[in-house]
Each structure stands twice: as C-alpha cells, then as structure tokens.
Amino acid sequence: MKYILFTLLSFLATATIQAQQEYTWDDYKLAFTLADDFKETKNTDEEFSADGDGMSMSIIPFENDAIDETDITAYTVSIFSELGVNRTDDVSLIELNGFHGGYAEGSKDGERIFIMGLIDPGSATNFFVIITFGDDDQNAVDEAVNICQSIHKL
Predict the structure, then answer these.
(1) Which of 43, 131, 138, 141: disulfide with 57, CB 3.0–4.6 Å?
(2) 149/131 Cα distance (integer angstroms)
(3) pLDDT tens string 37-61
C-alpha cells in the first residue's frame, strides 16, 4: 500500500513530459489517455490493446451483473494468480471515475504486471485492465498509473 501511495504521490508531483493521446473505445463508450508512443494493436468488442515503448496494455470486458465491490478484489487476485505471478507487491480496493474495483500489482520473470478489475455500477459489463512493462522501469510505473487514472465512461 505504501508503494502505491508513494507512486501516486510521485506521479502527482511530477509533470508529464510525454505528449498524450486520447482513445475512445466506442463499443463500450470508454475513454482513456495513452502516451503518444502507444499504437493501437487490437480494437474489437472483445479487447482493446495497445503497445508503447516497453509497455503493453489491454482492456478486456466481461459480463457479470452479480459481482460487486466485495467480490472484485478476490476475482482480480484469482486472475493475477492464474498468470503465474511470482511476486505480489500490492492488492487493494479502488474507486476510480465512477467504477468500483480491485487492483493487484506484482512481477513475473522480470515483468511488472498491473491488473485492475473495474465494476461499472450502471451495467453488467465490467472490465479487466492489464498493463505490463519492465520490472525496474519507474517511468513506466508512472505511465501505468496515468493510464489507470484516465479510464472513464463517456
């Protein structure tokens, strides 16, 4: 938790020097910001993915109107475990731009992995956000936080 708080405070204290580009995932009326080095690699009703310099991000929708904020963290951690993550750095509940969710962060084979499970209280469609990058890349940590904070419904 301290690591995430420090990361968020560091991010807020520093200016973003890279140009940003706004993306809209029309299928779900979801918008977010990525650095200008990101290129969209997939945009279907099953997945939105983009790759940047040393980073990848994906947003994957899932239908489940029975899941709520008490379930999403455990659900997110189970997905995290299925990926074979060998070091977990943080797990927490989040509220983000009208979404409720859970968050897990860790690493596997030298790659840092961020996973957010986001519940849209206004629909049965929810989302997993997965961001990966080099485990020791602090700039990528700041960029991942920026991506996560920018996700919102239109």
Answers:
(1) 131
(2) 13
(3) 999 999 999 999 999 999 999 999 9
